[in-house]
Amino acid sequence: MDINSLKADGLLALQGEPICVKFLAKEGEIRGNICTIDPITRSIVLAVFRQNDANGPEKLVIVPGGSYSSIEKCDSTASQKSEGWTPNSEELRQRLRASLFSEKSWRQIKTEESVMDIDHRADSEKVAAQARYERIIAALKKASLPFKEENEEHRGEKNKVIVVGAVRIMSPYKETPECIVSANKVALKRIMNFLEGTTK
């Protein structure tokens, strides 16, 4: 199931669909019904049900857009609920819309570690950092700016440092003084301006 090519109306039409989300960085998956999908980040708000619970959803879970490798539809024709999801229906979609505006649901979503319940916080951050790294490299190559890469170990983890002249761009490759450093303020400003928006 590919959601990347869908526009906002197409994403809206998926509300209530029972899906299985497979994670990118680790083995693992989560099942539930689509509550909504952010058209920009492709993050999914998933309604998770207890088995045979007619009053659900039990909780809402945020699945960050960069954390999953694939989405599969569950068998929505099943006559009874399976773990995490329930068959799609107009009644269900109405309940999901109500959940989106429920203060209780959003208190719950904030206290839930969402995808991070399954220890995916660090993995999700690594995936996001790798994506930023690749975008920076692509931008430098496209602009024909000379650069080199160096390996650096920090807190037991090996990361690549992108060196552009007097400027060093370090993991997690964000547009911050901690990630983009140089003693040459002019060069630093030029690179910061060049990369503006690339690392978001």
Please explain how this structure is put together.
The protein is of the alpha+beta class and 200 residues long. The chain is 29% helix and 26% strand. It has a five-stranded antiparallel β-sheet with strand order 4-3-2-1-5. Strand 2 and strand 3 form a beta hairpin.
Features:
200 residues, alpha+beta, 5 helices, Gemin6, AD domain-containing protein, AD
Describe the largest sheet. 5 strands, antiparallel
Mean of the pLDDT scores?
Answer: 80
Question: Segments where pLDDT lies below 50 for 5+ residues?
Answer: 110-116
Order of strands side by side in the largest beta sheet?
4-3-2-1-5
SS-based class: alpha+beta
Rg of Cα set = 21 Å
- Count of alpha and pi helical runs: 5
**What is the percentage of strand-forming residues?**
25-35%
Helix content: 25-40%
Got a strand count?
Answer: 9
The rounded distance between the terminal residues' Cα atoms is 26 Å
Give a concise summary.
This protein is an alpha+beta fold and 200 residues long. Helices cover 29% and strands 26% of the residues.
Could you outline the blueprint of secondary structure elements for this entry?
Layout: H1 8-12, E1 18-23, E2 29-37, E3 44-48, E4 59-63, E5 68-73, H2 90-100, H3 103-111, H4 121-142, E6 148-154, E7 157-164, E8 167-169, E9 180-181, H5 185-195
Antiparallel strand pairs: 1-2, 1-5, 2-3, 3-4, 6-7, 7-8, 8-9
Organism: Ditylenchus destructor
Protein name: AD domain-containing protein
Domain AD: 85-200
